[in-house]
Automatic annotation (TrEMBL):
Bilayer topology term: Multi-pass membrane protein
Biological function: Involved in the retrieval of endoplasmic reticulum membrane proteins from the early Golgi compartment.
Record family assignment: Belongs to the RER1 family.
Gene Ontology biological process: protein retention in ER lumen; retrograde vesicle-mediated transport, Golgi to endoplasmic reticulum
UniProt keyword annotations, A-Z: Membrane, Transmembrane, Transmembrane helix
Cellular location(s): Membrane
Protein name: Protein RER1
GO CC terms: endoplasmic reticulum; Golgi membrane
InterPro entries assigned: Rer1 (IPR004932)
PANTHER family: PROTEIN RER1 (PTHR10743)
Keyword NADP: no
Segments traversing the membrane: 61-79, 115-133, 139-156
């Protein structure tokens, strides 16, 4: 009976520390949300550190291949609409194709923040995995690279054809501004 009390007493500080760490981590994650450029530059730095690590040890190509497949999967989710028009055609609902159809904004299946967070976590986990020599499986890396390239091209081709077929663009360049029509009297000549 006494052993149970000491286990819970020693687990309480660990649980408190974990809870505090989780709250602080979430606080800083929330504060980073509006800083899009800085977040992606940080992810680029993490990716470069990973690439330098793989290049310096000349190994862990299977981990890199798995990372590439995972990032490709995330990219597909990022580029896809939340409600797939192909499936909605069967239900009767679809994206607007004419000016008289109802406007539906493009909503991603995987939002940008979750896309960034998942990619960053993936690079960090892959980096940590490069320190375990048992995961360095000897493979002929050009074959993996070619296979990933073919997979990327075929997947992106299918995704782009899907975008063209259902007329959606998953990117916005900025807020559209409408200037309105100029009136005939604003040509500079004034009548009195």
């Amino acid at each position: 009976m006494e052993g149970q009390g000491t286990d819970s007493a020693s687990a309480a500080p660990l649980a408190n520390w974990r809870n505090d760490f989780s709250k602080k981590f979430q606080y800083y994650l929330d504060r980073s949300t509006p800083h899009l450029l800085h977040r992606w530059l940080g992810t680029l730095a993490v990716a470069m550190v990973y690439v330098l690590r793989v290049y310096s040890v000349q190994g862990f190509y299977v981990i890199s291949y798995g990372l590439g497949i995972y990032v490709l999967n995330l990219l597909i989710g990022f580029l896809s609409p939340k409600e797939d028009p192909e499936l909605e055609v069967l239900d009767g609902a679809s994206l607007p194709m004419k000016g008289s159809d109802e406007f539906k904004p493009f909503i991603r299946r995987l939002p940008e923040f979750r896309f960034w967070y998942s990619i960053t976590k993936a690079f960090i986990v892959a980096f940590v995995l490069t320190f375990f020599s048992m995961l360095d499986v000897p493979v002929f890396w050009p074959i993996l690279l070619c296979y990933w390239g073919v997979l990327f091209v075929l997947t992106m081709k299918r995704q782009i054809l899907h975008m063209i077929k259902y007329k959606y663009v998953p990117f916005t360049i900025g807020k559209q501004r409408y200037t309105g029509k100029k009136s005939a009297g604003s040509s500079g000549s004034r009548r009195d």
